[in-house]
Write a structure and sequence with these properties.
Number of helices of chain B: 11
Strand order of the largest sheet of chain A: 2-1-3
CATH architecture of chain B: Up-down Bundle
CATH superfamily of chain B: Ferritin, core subunit, four-helix bundle
Largest sheet of chain A: 3 strands, antiparallel
CATH class of chain B: Mainly Alpha
Largest interface: A-B, 15 and 12 residues
Oligomer: heterodimer
CATH topology of chain A: Ubiquitin-like (UB roll)
Radius of gyration of chain A: 20 Å
Number of domains of chain A: 1
CATH architecture of chain A: Roll
CATH superfamily of chain A: Phenylacetic acid degradation B
Number of strands of chain B: 0
Helix content of chain B: 55-70%
Structural class of chain A: alpha+beta
Distance between the termini of chain A: 46 Å
Order of helices and strands of chain B: HHHHHHHHHHH
Helix content of chain A: 10-25%
CATH topology of chain B: Ferritin
């Protein structure tokens, strides 16, 4: 679990700025355990009142696509323009589309 | 009102001196996150000190400010307990000192919210959130260290064995304490002591740490009689105002 420099495991930090808003990735912290991870996240990322909600997740638990894999993973969607809702007119007065 | 001023100095000086000790550790923690966390605690404590010193200066009515009380007061007028002036020997000492103080602060400010004095009760409400967080953090560190590796347990027990003799001074009643208790302004120290001991027993049990058998206790700080360390610390802390008395921001 410990890295060579003895700072503990890496954790990803997500902050919710207002109730109802999505959690956004803010950065990462080192910590030995869950309690320490969320406290370090609080002390590093929310000391100026940035958050109303806070998540930490072990970085090793994040399932991710690397840049190298992006080509076959994402680009096939690029040619499927019919998946974008751009082929009809939005009625007048509709603002939230 | 002399007793209330003295009482405010006791509150302020515990916070100020511990804060300064923590600030000495700034940039020296084992890693960045811990460094920020410790300095955050130092900042919270300086907030408590500033508030209480400002009110003490008001009560005194001699035209001195809270800053004057912090930076132009001689050693024998500081009313902090001996524990908070003890040096940053190592990380275990820092955390044990913090845990003992946090446990006191939580018990103290919780009861102080009931103070019949408006300022003290407001100060308690404001501080209780901060010190509750401090205690959570230092309690977890006690468990992490005590129930961690053999070396970590050994070092933490060593810090406890050394610092225990300073741990009960919080509960020695000064004249100011007695006066404030009588007026219903301050909490009874005996009940704080049992709340403190309960917390220490709980955390030590989980942390596999032991209360030393030797219960010999030292005291003096609350009456202005300090250990060898405070004078050195103040020399550094008060260096600028004593060297350049007219300096302003």
């Amino acid at each position: 679990m410990e890295t060579k420099d003895n700072q503990g495991q890496l954790w990803e930090v997500f902050i919710q700025t207002k109730a109802g808003q999505p959690f956004k990735h803010a950065g990462s912290v080192h910590a030995y355990d869950k309690e320490m991870a969320i406290e370090n996240a609080r002390d590093v990322y929310t000391r100026r009142g940035e958050g109303t909600g806070l998540w930490v997740v072990p970085s090793s638990e994040i399932v991710a696509i690397t840049i190298n894999e992006a080509e076959y993973f994402f680009e096939s969607a690029d040619v499927k323009i019919y998946r974008h809702p751009t082929f009809y007119n939005v009625p007048e007065g509709v603002t939230n589309m | 009102m002399e007793a209330k001023k003295e009482y405010l100095l006791q509150i302020a000086d515990n916070a100020l001196i511990l804060s300064h000790r923590l600030s000495e550790y700034c940039s020296r923690a084992p890693f960045l996150e811990e460094d920020l966390a410790n300095t955050n605690v130092a900042l919270d404590l300086i907030g408590i000190a500033e508030s209480a010193l400002g009110e003490a200066a008001n009560l005194e009515g001699k035209g001195r400010s809270g800053d004057d009380l912090a930076y132009r007061r001689p050693e024998n007028e500081f009313k902090n307990v001996l524990l908070v002036e003890q040096p940053n020997t190592d990380f275990a000492y820092i955390m044990v000192r913090q845990f003992f103080t946090d446990a006191f602060h939580v018990a103290f400010f919780t009861e102080l919210t009931k103070s019949k004095d408006e300022f003290l009760s407001a100060l308690a409400y404001k501080s209780i959130k901060e010190v509750t967080y401090h205690l959570k953090r230092s309690s977890e560190w006690m468990i992490r260290l005590g129930d961690g590796t053999e070396l970590a347990n050994h070092k933490t027990q060593d810090a406890i064995d050394h610092l225990w003799k300073y741990s009960h001074e919080f509960f020695n009643a000064t004249e100011a304490d007695q006066e404030m208790i009588k007026l219903g302004f301050g909490p009874d120290l005996k009940s704080l002591e049992s709340a403190w001991k309960l917390k220490v027993n709980e955390i030590f049990f989980m942390a596999k740490l032991k209360i030393p058998e030797n219960n010999y206790q030292l005291a003096g700080g609350k009456n202005g009689v300090h250990s060898e360390y405070l004078g050195h610390m103040l020399t550094e802390m008060q260096y600028l105002p004593s060297k350049y008395p007219d300096a302003v921001w």
